[in-house]
């Protein structure tokens, strides 16, 4: 247990003007009140309030919060009273201590209807002074760090409550470090075997690859120095629970997860953030769809940062966060940054959110005392931002990962419902099966006798349960078709590296991949569980490293009948790297659409016309048209510079059409020819970073474009 003087020293590190005498008096009073009380571990009970206070000094919190931490159990567990604490330390501290006491007595994990009412009380206490919940979170963190002294059943109860309530609440308040640690401590109790297995795999990975973090950190520093950007770079492996959750969501084993390392770049200015982003993207390839700019569009809790994921030559992905020092302080402290002290004064951080406004945004719509259940539901929807809560027509709640679709919803109810699904209504409106569900929506699954899972569902489903059930059903129902499609995919893959997919080669690949025979191998390729590239890489690893010649346009799509022609749908302009499906059409052969094209709804009731297609896994020529909707500044030379930038990205401009001309801005549709989806995303990111570009997005003409005639 640290002494009063050591605790004061911790506070003085960030607040030299602290009232040391007041903190020491609170320390002595708390110690006296808890005299003779012991924790389950046998330590003096007062060691716990002191540890909670020390945790709060890491957040650089004010004296009143530190004193509250020292006294937070006195009203509940000792003879100290509210009036005594108010007399000795003032009304502010007494109110905070009383607030923490009331929170401690709430049964937040209760499964009864009282839980809703208690959740309201939790938020009402928070709305009076958010420091109450900061003390409570630090209290829970120390209890979880020392949980081993509790009885096993009590450990499980506390861990479950932490995982369900306190960890998401810490995340919602922007205290990401605390959320991660709480989740990991709870994970250690709830699934010790799972956590240990991930740690063991990390150790093995480090033995095989060396210190990846040190190597990549060094490379990033070198790139930033080369660009003349002053910045700090930090790297770390993600927490075991974070990796476990990713494995569950993506239905992947550890070895197939790529972004298990995270890196942070801390710059001096906001401008340097964007310059650093450019330097990182110049050296490493950006992963499409993994870019978020929370600087221009901050989160509601004040969080600002640029997120991007890049991949190196070995295909390994790493996540990079780029922010300034002030943004970093808020990212570490969240709403708590409002009370942070530095050099004896409150930190005037321009990004810190006013706690009163933040809590009001959560509670303003609930005024009546009768709507506890509504309040609870809304609070949970707010807190669990990485999950989606939807409702069945009867009002039952179905919990899904963010990005889930009606297919996932159907399988979450029952495998039988999933297999028979032919459509869905969301809030009473018929929607395509690939629609991404949002919090609070009501979903009604439409089923039909005789329906069986479609192979395209694998591209739509995101939950492990749905994907596993679909694969199993597809293998049983249509094994021969998968073997045939798999053979075609593998043949094309082997041909691309100048080899033949002989029976011997397939048997060798099956053996290496621990699959019982070549037919099972082909069936898995046909059902998208394996790629042709995976099979070729096992037999000829050296050949697959060389990308070889570009794939001819006539061989770009796999899954067609011999002699069957195809054309790309003009409505969605699908690109290599995108999930695709074919629609047979008289006179046109097969029209290829992106899996999320709105026009596909026209063919939902004609499943006989759908064809399972894949892009060839090799390198494609820059010959695929895509259209960008671009808004640029109306200044001399802007358009010329943008055309030059596009040329530097090895993309060709095939057409340019002005849509709108204003005194300050032009809006135009720019048609470019690119290799694949990744090159298009790279092009868009580069344009987005240009100061003369006000907006850029991919344009899809689903209104006027002609599609396959019936």
Automatic annotation (TrEMBL):
Residues 45-144 form the HD domain. It is an enzyme of class 2 (transferase). It catalyses: GTP + ATP = guanosine 3'-diphosphate 5'-triphosphate + AMP. Residues 627-701 form the ACT domain. Pfam families: ACT_4 (PF13291), HD_4 (PF13328), RelA_AH_RIS (PF19296), RelA_SpoT (PF04607), TGS (PF02824). Signal peptide: none annotated. The keyword Membrane does not apply. Residues 382-447 form the TGS domain. GO terms for cellular component: plasma membrane. GO terms for molecular function: GTP diphosphokinase activity; guanosine-3',5'-bis(diphosphate) 3'-diphosphatase activity. GO terms for biological process: guanosine tetraphosphate metabolic process; nucleobase-containing small molecule interconversion; response to starvation. Its EC number is 2.7.6.5. Keywords: Hydrolase. The keyword Coiled coil does not apply. SUPFAM superfamilies: ACT-like (SSF55021), HD-domain/PDEase-like (SSF109604), Nucleotidyltransferase (SSF81301), TGS-like (SSF81271). Belongs to the relA/spoT family. In eubacteria ppGpp (guanosine 3'-diphosphate 5'-diphosphate) is a mediator of the stringent response that coordinates a variety of cellular activities in response to changes in nutritional abundance. PANTHER family: BIFUNCTIONAL (P)PPGPP SYNTHASE_HYDROLASE SPOT, GUANOSINE-3',5'-BIS DIPHOSPHATE 3'-PYROPHOSPHOHYDROLASE. This is GTP pyrophosphokinase rsh. It comes from Ruegeria intermedia.
